[in-house]
Amino acid sequence: MRAIITLPFLWLGVFFLLPFALVLVIALGTNAPDSVPPVALGFSLKSFTLLFTDDLYLAAWLTSLRIAATSTLVALLLGYPMAYAIARAAPERRPLLLMLVVLPFWTSFLIRVYAWMGLLDENGLLNQFLRWSGLATDPGTILGTEWAVHLGIVYAYLPFMVLPLYAVLEKLDAGLLEAAADLGARPIQAFLTITLPLSLPGIVAGCLLVFIPAVGEFVIPDLLGGTETLMIGKVLWDEFFTNADWPLASAVAICLLVLLVGPIALFQRQQARSLERHL
Amino acid sequence: MSRVFISFLLAFAVVPAFGQGSVNVYNWSDYIAEDQLKAFTNDTGVKVNYTTYDSNEILDAKLRTGRSGYDVVVPTASPFFVRQLAAGLYLPLDRSKLRNWNNLDPEILAALARYDAGNAHGIPWMWGTTGIGYNVAEIRKRLPDAPVDSLRMIFDPAVVSKFKDCGVMLLDSATDVLPAALKYLGLDPDSKKTEDLAKAAGVVKAVRPFIRKFHSSEYINALAGGNICLAFGYSGDIFQARDRAAKAKDKRDIAYAIPREGSLLWIDVAAIPKDAPNPANALRFLDFLLEPKVAAASSELTGYANGNKAAFALLPKDISGNPLIYPPAAVRAKFYTITAGTSDQTRERTRLWTTVKTGR
Hints:
The structure holds two protein chains of two kinds. By secondary structure, chain A is an all-alpha fold. Chain A contains 13 helices and two strands; from the N terminus they run αββαααααααααααα. Helices cover 43% and strands 14% of the residues of chain B. Chain A binds chain B through residues 31, 33-38, 54, 56, 59, 110, 114, 121-123, 141, 144, 219, 222-223, 226-230, 235, 238, 240-246, and chain B through 1-2, 5-6, 9, 57, 60-61, 63-66, 83, 86-89, 167, 172, 174, 211-215, 218, 225-228, 343, 346-347, 350-351, 354-355, 357-360.
């Protein structure tokens, strides 16, 4: 029994805490381009001060938050009806519908993003269709814009929104809605006062699962986005590979983690408390 | 592009095997004729563990982490090899073990010596230029007398603006584009002066509205697929785009031009990491690379010029006689190279480049 409980902690310790500690140690060192590895260990906050004094990092951070937030919202608006429909479908059809949500994972993420490039290109399938159908003669290009980044993120992370929502909605007692209807509530009223509040844990879980990876996303903005979309993942890449400044790259990674984990931990505590109150 | 990520995912998973009679070679993909590797093993009895990468960044990160386990690597001279050299990552070459040294092209050696004094650490493998790739038909349609062999093609707003609608891409590389912009202004392309770099940044900012994207490899597919009509990139990449476009269903004629103002010379350098497990075999392998037939066979595969003068006579005419691969002396005289600079200068340049790209 104890072994079973220890295992996840051991896992977290070895694969999360230890690497995190290493990254922190590097972040507190100074850049030493002429040594291997290029870090002089020590206790210096130089990398962190640089991060907070150069407005470029702040701008990249804000762009990342904005794009992640809008993508999460869109994913929620798309994912909720999907999850709801699956949860309300006949029980024997649910596994098939769930399978369809998960199916894209059978193909590599990278290849799916490339497929989007093929769709959104100047001469991509979308534009070919628009020209062929006569809907637009000069349709312009979505690839290389912030629209494409949003599209890519929503597409890639939608299953992470649908699955937790489904898990919650599926357990929802249909009797509650019947009771509401019996008492004269219109469907929209019943949804807003019963279904929505009860599915809140699923909404929170889904949003976190989409929002957190979206903030640090690198592949999607690099492949689908344009150059003017400066996201924090690209800044990290530049610091590590172009400038070969490991301490600064590590400092960016630490800030990314702290600035994300802080509010989320707070939010979850709040959630836990309100749950206790309800019980 | 694919290159960066796919290799990124794979690179850290591939661990070379070590052995007594072996040499661990880490090279660009498709960069040496494979049958030559067998020939090396037959000649010397040394087994070759050959692994490949697709981006300098992967190699750089591995070498900087230390104990990479490689005996021979092939970084690009600038900005990678020169930076790694400054970090003391390479063994000096024992020339007495390199019997074929004199096959090397003195001109390329002299250019490389700007990064590596006295050519003490590396031998030039393949080299090429940085220039202009374009879709012949699309350019002609929009500007029949376009100055295709001039940097005006990418830096003169009056010219670039004509091609906005068919798509323009520039390398996402401060060390390639800013020197070219300096050259365009008639300044020293190697200048590290803040005011010069600001002027160069001004040039790029002025054409930025007409640039679809800054990216260091996407232009290959984009040119070949007809999604863009103009790119500033590496000669080898644009040749690849040209070959792909020629094979495509709806044939496109892609051409390459070396800017008449001068071109940044790129050289990929074979060198031995300081912590190479088999340094003696690494030297034997380098000496093998210096054999004319090996360099010639590899040039035939890659379509790039090599740094081996003795190999020139062995090359097929379509390579040795191609002025875009082996440019004539007057064009070579205008080649330039840039030095590494300090890490503060690198940071300043990267920051400047980010502001240019993002239009801040």
